[in-house]
């Protein structure tokens, strides 16, 4: 479900980021902003109104404590869900070994969390494979939202009739495998079961330190994203409404091999810690010397360790551990190096590595499985050398349909996370599938540069929305008259002469120039990228180019792994005006 939409009472996840605005900064002093009610804002209100009535004294079992001892399961509580939300109507206190759906699924570790749910890696005992289990908060509002999400997920996960020779774009959307209810101390929770994926695109952006990821990866992501959106819009009649890096997840490749690697390393860490503890205990049991300093430090360490233990025993929050993706590899290489022995050199695409440091058994098995991931490991080594990575392939999937809606049933007009929000939504005009295309273009720009395309701020005399609209005009030109005359909020921002009320000085800076002057793209590249992004940033949503047509753009023709993929039924640069619900909610049209 969407996490960063600026609804009233909404608090961003701590790991969300701020990057530099590609445009000049206006003065920044708090202003005011309009708000809108939605089913999501209602849910967030409930969250805000809640008291801190959770049981802080909730002891963990020995098994859980053992789990927390592991480095890979360590919990930085600041980056996790709030303990306050473990209460009736809130999150379910899941734990390793807990079973779901009459014993079918067994919890292994936590993968992540959102404002609506916690997400857990679980073993499916029927298929003997791992799955991602999303356990939704139990309050009625979350439950209803989850039931809507399941309907949308079923629509996009429905098996596609195989049409020979045609590309199956549905594989770029996260599939729902199962759903059921689970009763726990905090109520009845909807649980959704998905295929397991790895980190999101924000992890990849961060890995490249917000300097932009290599163009060959951007092309792969862009093409898959567009193919996925084309499928969602044209074949399913579904609008995502919250396309952003956090909601696009990367495939990890061989999930089972990576899970085994993580498990083996966790066990190693636990064993190490246990023997360290034993050693400390033995040294403390020994008769102490007359040196008061050493007595003091022993008792200090005793106090420290018992207070650590107390802290652990008083929390029910588990640390999130997304499976490491070879390509984003925030910690993949560290883990792999430990797996192989610390002295191992960094792997290369063609290296036949020595596994001399492996101790056999589990490690050996995992090493064998990991060798299948070898080809994708070069990304981390030579980010500057794209030619070396011609075999690396990123697979992405669009996830989190928690804010999605139907082309003929919009649940709210408060859609899209701020930086990815389209002009029609800001102005209160009609909107439709094309709003996702705007967000997709913002996302692709961010992948290329590491910066948000639009990062509005508020100032003395203008709101964030004023600044957002001004930035859009500076980049793309005047807002079309049709939007000014139909937008419910247009008069808030514009006077009767069509001028911005609160901002007078604009600095026009076309996209191509931004790419060349700020991001140092060569003129030819800046021209091609601008030619690719501009049709998706058309200000009038009716005229915006559709996803399928843009997947055919020449810039994407050499996309690794997708070279021959062309959607013949869609024309390059053509607007999606023929797609039902393209730029407004459809009424009286039979649903797909
Ligand atoms: N299929 C999956 N495989 C691996 N990890 C996943 C999967 N689905 C979700 N996650 C992890 O769980 C996190 C929360 O998932 P999701 O965004 O769907 O939950 P949410 O409660 O709807 O969140 P929010 O509304 O705050 O965005 C994700 O950011 C991701 O780290």
Automatic annotation (TrEMBL):
Compositionally biased region (Low complexity): 289-304
SMART domains assigned to the protein according to its UniProt record, in alphabetical order: S_TKc
Name of a matching Pfam family: Pkinase
Compositionally biased region (Basic and acidic residues): 75-87
The enzyme's E.C. designation: 2.7.11.1
Keywords of this entry: ATP-binding, Kinase, Nucleotide-binding, Serine/threonine-protein kinase, Transferase
InterPro entries: Kinase-like_dom_sf (IPR011009), Prot_kinase_dom (IPR000719), Protein_kinase_ATP_BS (IPR017441), Ser/Thr_kinase_AS (IPR008271), SRPK (IPR051334)
Biased composition (Basic residues): 270-280
Residue ranges constituting the Protein kinase domain according to the UniProt record: 105-556
SUPFAM superfamilies tied to this protein: Protein kinase-like (PK-like)
Compositionally biased spans, kind Polar residues: 13-23, 317-329, 349-358
Protein name stated in the entry: non-specific serine/threonine protein kinase
């Amino acid at each position: 479900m969407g996490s960063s939409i600026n609804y009233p009472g909404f608090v961003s996840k701590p790991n969300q980021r701020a990057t530099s605005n590609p445009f000049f900064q206006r003065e920044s002093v708090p202003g005011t902003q309009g708000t809108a009610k939605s089913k999501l804002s209602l849910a967030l209100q409930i969250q805000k109104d809640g008291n801190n009535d959770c049981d802080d004294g909730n002891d963990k079992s020995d098994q859980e404590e053992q789990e927390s001892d592991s480095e890979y399961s360590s919990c930085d509580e600041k980056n996790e869900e709030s303990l306050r939300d473990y209460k009736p109507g809130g999150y379910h206190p899941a734990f390793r070994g807990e079973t779901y759906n009459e014993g079918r699924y067994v919890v292994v570790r936590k993968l992540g969390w959102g404002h609506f749910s916690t997400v857990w890696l679980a073993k499916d005992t029927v298929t003997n494979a791992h799955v991602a289990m999303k356990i939704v908060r139990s309050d009625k509002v979350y439950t209803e939202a989850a039931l809507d999400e399941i309907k949308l997920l079923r629509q996009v996960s429905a098996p596609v009739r195989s049409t020979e020779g045609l590309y199956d774009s549905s594989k770029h959307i996260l599939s729902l495998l199962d759903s059921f209810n689970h009763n726990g101390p905090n109520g009845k929770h909807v649980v959704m079961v998905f295929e397991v994926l790895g980190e999101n695109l924000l992890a990849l952006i961060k890995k490249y330190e917000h300097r932009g990821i290599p163009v060959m990866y951007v092309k792969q992501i862009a093409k898959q994203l567009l193919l996925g959106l084309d499928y969602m819009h044209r074949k399913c009649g579904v609008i995502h409404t919250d396309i952003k890096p956090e909601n696009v997840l990367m495939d990890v490749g061989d999930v089972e091999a990576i899970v085994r690697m993580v498990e083996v390393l966790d066990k190693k860490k636990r064993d190490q810690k246990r023997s360290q503890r034993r050693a400390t205990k033995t040294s403390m049991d020994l008769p102490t010397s007359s040196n008061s300093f050493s007595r003091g430090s022993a008792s200090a360490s005793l106090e420290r360790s018992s207070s650590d233990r107390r802290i652990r025993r008083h929390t029910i929050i588990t640390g999130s551990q997304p499976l490491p993706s070879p390509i984003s590899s925030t910690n993949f290489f560290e883990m792999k190096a430990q797996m192989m022995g610390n002295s191992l050199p960094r792997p290369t695409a063609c290296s036949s590595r020595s596994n001399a440091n492996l101790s056999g058994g589990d490690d050996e098995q995992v090493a064998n499985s990991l060798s299948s991931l070898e080809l994708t490991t070069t990304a981390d080594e030579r980010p500057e050398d794209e030619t070396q990575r011609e075999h690396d392939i990123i697979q992405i999937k669009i996830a989190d349909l928690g804010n999605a809606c139907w082309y003929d049933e919009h649940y709210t007009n408060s859609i899209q996370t701020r930086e990815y929000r389209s002009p029609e939504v800001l102005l209160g005009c009609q909107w439709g599938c094309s709003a996702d295309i705007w967000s997709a273009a913002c996302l692709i720009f961010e992948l290329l540069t590491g910066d948000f395309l639009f990062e509005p701020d508020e100032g003395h005399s203008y709101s964030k929305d004023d600044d957002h609209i001004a930035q859009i005009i500076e980049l793309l030109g005047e807002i079309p008259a049709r939007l000014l005359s139909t937008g419910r909020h247009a008069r808030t921002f514009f006077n009767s002469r069509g001028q911005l009320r609160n901002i007078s000085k604009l600095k026009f800076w076309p996209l191509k120039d931004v790419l060349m002057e700020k991001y140092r793209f060569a003129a030819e590249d800046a021209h091609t990228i601008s030619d690719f992004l501009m049709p998706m940033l058309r200000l009038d949503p009716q005229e915006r180019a559709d996803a399928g047509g843009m997947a055919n753009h020449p810039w994407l023709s050499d996309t690794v792994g997708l070279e021959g993929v062309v959607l013949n039924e869609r024309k390059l640069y053509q607007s999606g005006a023929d797609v039902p619900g393209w730029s407004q909610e459809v009424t009286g049209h039979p649903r797909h």
